[in-house]
Design a protein that fits this description.
The chain has 269 residues and is an all-alpha fold. The chain has a domain at 181-268. Helices cover 63% and strands 0% of the residues. Helix 1 (7-19) crosses helix 4 (54-65), helix 2 crosses helix 4 (54-65) and helix 5 runs antiparallel to helix 6 (96-108). The protein is elongated. The relative contact order is 0.06. This is HEAT repeat-containing protein. InterPro entries: ARM-like (IPR011989), ARM-type_fold (IPR016024). Pfam families: HEAT_2.
Length: 269
């Protein structure tokens, strides 16, 4: 088992995994290092993050990205030291392949203070960096009151030239972040209804229809101003709650309405 190997052997093996990474290969040594949340591993990873070799910097960042299990407070071990190092390196790192993993690490650690630096990379020329920005933003924004610059960056990424980036950004907008303006989201999904990518098209069309259904179900039960503010949060909650109406209680005190929403969600095509 990789987890029982000596640290030096694990590091050498993980370096080869990073060098050969094609996005699909198993990386048992890297995973073993991430699971060994000790001060020794943390310190070695920190040293790698500033190494002259690009592959070792990437290895260090990827170890720190998922080092240890989440704690009772929702965060991982060494979080404060990790995010401080990641933010410092983000300002200095010249290699886009390492930058993408720094952005990802900040997202995994939910370092909201890094939001401005990550938002600034939404227009980065390297597609890998933009992809990780789209994936990281849901962990960095205030999901109830999304920062305007972050909302603008997400909407821009929904129109990225890369289909995977468009999909990830649209997923964030429609399934993860409820605090976006519903009119702006509606305009976005209407514009993406004829997107070149089938998955993006389907998600856009489905979300436009979902906005209309939720608005109709809320109509007459919730006053219009609050109704519009509730549409996004309700759809995000439904995406995660699925068939559990109790999980809507914090948003909707009307249990019959919550049941109708859940039944509709469960029975949609």
């Amino acid at each position: 088992m990789a987890g029982s190997l000596p640290l030096e052997l694990l590091l050498r093996s993980a370096r080869r995994e990073v060098e050969d990474d094609d996005g699909d290969a198993a990386m048992p040594s890297l995973v073993a290092l991430q699971g060994r949340a000790t001060r020794e591993v943390f310190d070695r990873a920190c040293a790698l993050v500033v190494d002259p070799e690009v592959v070792l910097r990437e290895l260090g960042v990827r170890i720190l990205r998922e080092l240890g299990d989440e704690q009772p407070d929702g965060f991982r071990p060494f979080r404060g030291e990790t995010v401080a190092l990641m933010r410092a390196r983000l300002a200095l790192e010249p290699d886009p392949g390492v930058v993408r993993w720094i952005v990802s690490a900040l997202g995994w650690h939910r370092d909201r203070e890094a939001l401005p630096e990550v938002v600034a990379l939404a227009g980065h020329p390297d597609v890998r960096v933009r992809f990780h920005v789209a994936a990281a933003l849901p962990g960095l924004v205030d999901r109830e009151r999304v920062e305007p610059a972050a909302a603008e960056a997400l909407f821009r990424l929904c129109h990225d030239e890369d289909a995977d980036i468009r999909y990830y950004a649209l997923y964030a907008v429609t399934r993860e972040i409820g605090g976006l303006d519903v009119e702006a989201v509606t305009a976005l999904v209407v514009g993406l209804a004829d997107d070149a990518d089938e998955q993006v098209r389907a998600m856009a069309v489905a979300h436009r229809e979902a906005i209309g259904v939720v608005r109709e179900l809320l109509d007459g039960v919730v006053e219009p101003g609050r109704r519009e503010r509730l549409i996004g949060p309700v759809l995000v909650e439904l995406a995660w709650a699925e068939d559990d109406a109790d999980l809507l209680e914090d948003l909707i005190t009307d249990s019959d309405l919550a049941e109708r929403l859940v039944r509709w969600w469960a029975g949609r095509d």
